[in-house]
């Protein structure tokens, strides 16, 4: 038996015992892993998939009974559906770009307690549209934005940090956080929640920004292990606050469990 | 050193580094894994274990202080306890068969946010009985039903689908979903919740059924990442709706993360 | 190629396929794993880390906007922050010792639905203090107590048990469970929740104790898969009840998934 045969034999033997395709991935790797579509399902309702085990779908003419149960404005016969296992902030920011770019409205934003064993949320976001082409376009835009909006999600085994920034908030951000439309907006998230409190304090002390929302495990989250602030103000001040929060949060989470890399690539 | 010795040495070396008995199991494999009892605990309260990390127990004479705290009808001195880490739908359907078959009532159905890192629920179901033998019988029936009622739970790394059907709903289904007793009943669940919305729409469009309940991450679930509808109507119509929902749901979840096999064996 | 070369080659080949450093850890191993600090983050707010992915922090002068959003009594300009991914009971008991030992008060105790895929909670506990040195001391005491208070947390793949006992409850226990200050206190937790019901019944039947709180997946928990009772009474009676609950709980959880070892070392 030569060397190559032996190697094959070893690998075969190992496959009986362990799943060679499986690694135990970090939460954020889990999020990243399913960003590609395995195969197009061949249904007209399908728009695409993205990072965070996210799927985008449309319904051209939503069933009237479901329309009523979901409490959707009667003027929308079409809906866009964006939902994932990991991430709510990234999806809300992506949806915000989508409503800016299309003739749609945000019907609802719901936060599941998810992230596949992680400390945060998953989400379900519904766009309303009069035409299915608009709903589809909104979902397409949002799916495409997700790679960017996951850029300042940093994770390791202990938890995660999330930072978001936009120079001009639109209706998804307004719906989710009550932040004013048209102004700069920032989101600061730390998990476990203890880190988020420190990040919030740093953000608010760094520059002259207004805190429009504070959420914590028992208030305003879906019992996620996060502390979250939403801030608004001048765009320079908001950015500065976000960066300060990221810096102190990164020090804490690194002290807990080592390096916490970006899920994709930082944009702030 | 011959080939076999070498193989042993390789395996020994590897065991220092990795747990050869461990695979990273899919959620639904996790559910299946603990269906056998490791050893009878030797206590009279124990009835059995089942799929979904489920345990069945009875208390012959529940302590009076606990009786009051749990808000149990005074006429029941005995309770049956059915609870698991993965699954609420399967347990409710199983409990429904149990109340049909025994002299018991459903005291409460509570949904934990669980599934061991998955997108769904775990549960705690309490049966009330005047005699402990009735409570025990109810738990036995329910435990036995679970293999069947997990049959249309399909899962992969992205999420899961759940379909349930009965020709005649009883009091557990009525308690959980407000569906009428004695009529055909169907349950349609999709996770992540985005898929569930599309499945709900398909179910309601397929046949003339009534939607008795719609739940989503922030409404009616325990913040699970699921959209759920409960339907009632003629038995043929309910079945047809369920099958249509399963078909479109399967296409979506397969597009996200590849094949999503049944946890046990489909019954619908 | 000699034997050692071959072994190296096998290991290299395997590293392409699997993460040799990764084992799939039990929940409670996960809790234990991050009890050491990877590196001091070099910020004055940092106090330390502990078991359960716990971090302890202080803020000397909390930002006024955050102070208001967090609804903290105006007399406290400093806060201590204690939070972790796994454990709420251990942290509440540890915080209770901390308030006994320091000039601080409990501002809030919030329970996340966490434990990194397990059945229980994570937590965020805020101490209020007039001086940062007091806040720091409280967090230090609490971090140090956690090794002990995780001692009667027992877990395996199916779930976990948690028992806590103190001869004299203080203000953290009072805040969390409404138990009287100065009296003996016990906590009985079982997950999945079915086990917790049986443990509660056993605890209350064993000795003359008072049940001050009962929580279950849909009532009083953050949708965790636990049933929980908090008991008070004579110290001997409370201990006896706790031990009886542990005994029956251990039998159940062992029947589900084999041995359920202590996270650290039993103290009751």
Key traits:
5-stranded antiparallel sheet; 268 residues; alpha+beta; 38% helix; homotrimer; Alpha-Beta Plaits
Task: Describe the fold and architecture.
Three copies of one chain form a homotrimer. The radius of gyration of chain A is 20 Å and the shape is globular. The first copy, chain A, contains eight helices and ten strands. Chain A has a single domain, classed as BMC (bacterial microcompartment) domain (Alpha-Beta Plaits). In chain A, the strands form two sheets. Chain A has a five-stranded antiparallel beta sheet with strand order 1-2-3-5-4. A five-stranded antiparallel beta sheet of chain A has the order 6-7-8-10-9, with helices on both faces. In chain A, α4 runs antiparallel to α6. The first copy, chain A, is 38% helix and 25% strand. With 268 residues, chain A is an alpha+beta fold. The relative contact order of chain A is 0.14. In chain A, a hairpin with a 3-residue loop joins β1 and β2.
Strand content of chain A: 25-35%
What spatial form of chain A do the alpha-carbon principal axes imply? Answer: globular
Total separate domains of chain A: 1
Question: Which radius of gyration of chain A do the C-alpha atoms yield?
Answer: 20 Å
CATH topology term of chain A: Alpha-Beta Plaits
The CATH superfamily title of chain A: BMC (bacterial microcompartment) domain
How far apart, in Å, are the first and last alpha carbons of chain A?
Answer: 57 Å
């Amino acid at each position: 038996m030569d060397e190559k045969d032996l190697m094959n034999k070893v690998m075969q033997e190992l496959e009986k015992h362990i799943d060679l395709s499986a690694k135990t991935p970090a939460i954020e790797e889990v999020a990243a892993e399913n960003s590609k579509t395995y195969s197009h399902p061949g249904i007209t309702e399908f728009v695409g998939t993205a990072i965070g085990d996210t799927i985008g779908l449309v319904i051209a003419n939503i069933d009237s009974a479901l329309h009523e149960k979901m409490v959707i404005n009667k003027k929308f016969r079409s809906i866009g559906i964006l939902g994932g296992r990991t991430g709510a902030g990234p999806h809300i920011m992506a949806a915000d770009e989508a409503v800016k770019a299309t003739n749609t409205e945000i019907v609802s934003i719901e936060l599941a307690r998810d992230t596949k064993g992680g400390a945060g949320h998953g989400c379900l976001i519904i766009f309303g549209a009069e035409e299915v082409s608009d709903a589809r376009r909104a979902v397409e835009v949002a799916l495409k934005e997700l790679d960017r909006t996951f850029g300042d999600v940093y994770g390791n085994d202990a938890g995660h940090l999330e930072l978001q920034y936009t120079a001009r908030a639109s209706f998804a951000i307004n719906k989710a956080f009550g932040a004013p439309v048209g102004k700069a907006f920032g989101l600061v998230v730390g998990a476990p929640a203890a880190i988020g409190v420190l990040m919030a304090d740093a953000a608010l002390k760094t520059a002259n920004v207004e805190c429009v929302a504070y959420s914590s495990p028992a208030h305003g989250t879906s019992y996620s292990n996060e502390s979250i602030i939403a801030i608004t103000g001048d765009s320079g001040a908001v950015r500065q606050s976000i960066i300060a929060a990221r810096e102190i949060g990164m020090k804490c989470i690194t002290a807990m469990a080592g390096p916490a890399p970006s899920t994709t690539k930082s944009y702030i």
